[in-house]
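Researcher: Go.
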Amino acid sequence: MIHKIKFGKQTIQFLIIKSDRKKTSEISVDKDNVIVRIPTLKTNLEIKNILKEKSKWIYKKQLEFKKQKSSIVKPTFSKDTTVPYIGNNCILKIKINQKKNSIKFSNSKFIISLIGKRSLKKEIQKIYDEWLTIKATKYLEARTIKLGTKIGLKPSKIQTKNLKGRWGSASKGTITLNSNLMKCSKDTIDYIIIHELCHLKIQDHSHRYWNLVRKHYPKYEEKVKELEVLSRIVL
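Model: Structure:
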């Protein structure tokens, strides 16, 4: 059940989840979503009163998330939680007892269908990661070509991999980008691409290198700080 509340020009959407297992109401908040878990017996009027009572607190929490260097929430791959995609925390819905394993993304929501009778987190993560890699291959290659043409630094080869512990690399004309970049915002992706493109010209991290990065991405220092946080969540 979906509810919406307006704060001036901004509308906040609430996802209502009823459960027989819940004894008390619980609200979880991130930058993009508000999930309200309540006992099944709660009436619509009671739900409305809960949202009204907590609306200011929810609005304040979302503003806090937006002010943070990174608002991406580390995924747990449980149903009705969130997974990151292009800098947003997207609601994850799970369907069991389906004809085949599949994943669908629409309206900032992921729907993963599973053949089995249980929603296994490892299986959910595998389906999500494979989907992300497919999206990354197309997007990151196209974006690298576009940015490389713009700044005059063109790689001879572009490849995408699920790297561990690093966002990308550049060697002998080849740029390798981490498919997990698709969890980051578009401007963060652009920074990493420019970072690696600059390494095609200067391999080290000297002052000359950072001056080149600054030329093409003036606010790079903000991204360096943001990526320190993101690396603990995404990589």
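Model: The radius of gyration is 21 Å.
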